[in-house]
Write a structure and sequence with these properties.
disordered C terminus, mainly alpha, disordered N terminus, rod-shaped
Length: 169
């Protein structure tokens, strides 16, 4: 578990790609059980890490009365309910993890689109800045006493300032 091996084949989900597993493209057959990678992914520990249990002592047949069988029946039902609740909880956690992974991928794609857009806008701004600077230089060369339009005057206007020289035009 935990992503050390890329040869893992998970058999626990109907999807052909299981986002919870460390191996991409692993095969799944049932949604009822967790593979080790799922358990590790959710921090539940692997199935091979079962807690130490008390050694079973068989009950002699003469002590297996109606009361015993009633307790066994209740215990079996409680164990079944407990396992089902655990499966449901793990299923909800897996769905939540898969959804978060999908959302993360979607957001990564959106970031890439926005980065591309920012770079494109930067290039447009640089081109506009260059064009404006060239226009200002040409205007200053052709009309040395002319003032800039009001929208281009002021302390908040920043653009490339080319030195005015008649030799470079």
């Amino acid at each position: 578990g935990g992503g050390e091996s890329s040869s893992h084949t998970c058999t626990n989900s109907p999807k052909s790609v299981h986002e919870g597993c460390s191996s991409i493209g692993s095969q799944h057959s049932s949604d009822k059980e967790l593979c080790e990678d799922d358990a590790d992914f959710l921090g539940l520990g692997s199935s091979s890490e079962a807690p130490a249990r008390k050694k079973r002592v068989p009950i002699p047949d003469e002590r297996k009365d109606a009361k015993y069988w009633e307790r066994r029946k209740k215990n079996n039902m409680a164990a079944k309910r407990s396992r089902e609740m655990r499966r449901k909880k793990v299923d909800v956690e897996l769905r939540s993890a898969r959804k978060a992974i999908q959302e993360n991928e979607k957001l990564k794609q959106e970031i890439e689109v926005l980065k591309t857009e920012v770079n494109s806008l930067r290039r447009l701004l640089q081109d506009a800045n260059t064009t404006l600077s060239l226009w200002i230089r040409a205007r200053q060369v052709s009309e040395p006493n002319a003032q800039l339009p009001p929208m281009l005057r002021g302390p908040n206007i920043s653009f490339v300032n080319f030195p005015v020289s008649t030799a470079s035009v």
